[in-house]
Design brief:
By secondary structure, the protein is mainly alpha-helical. Helices cover 66% and strands 0% of the residues.
């Protein structure tokens, strides 16, 4: 084989490798960009998962006196009584 043919084949293989690397980098950059957009987007109610469970969820069925007083203060019921 002549030197020109070997040189042309080598250049061709290098160009193919370069194209594959550029394609991989561009594809990975798009994936990373989309992942960052998804992570930083605002959370919509019901889509985010909050871990943890109340130990005794029945304790929240009936409010205690302190909670009722606090709710009354927030609603301004104390002002009506004066």
């Amino acid at each position: 084989m002549s030197e020109h043919l070997v040189l042309n084949i080598t250049y061709g293989l290098l160009m193919i490798a370069l194209g594959a690397m550029v394609w991989f980098i561009v594809r990975r950059a798009k994936e990373n960009r989309q992942e960052m957009i998804d992570e930083s987007s605002p959370k919509v109610a019901g889509e985010d998962e909050i871990g943890g469970v109340a130990i005794n969820p029945q304790e929240f069925d009936e409010p205690d006196d302190e909670a009722l007083d606090e709710m009354g203060a927030l609603l301004g019921e104390d002002e009506d009584e004066e």
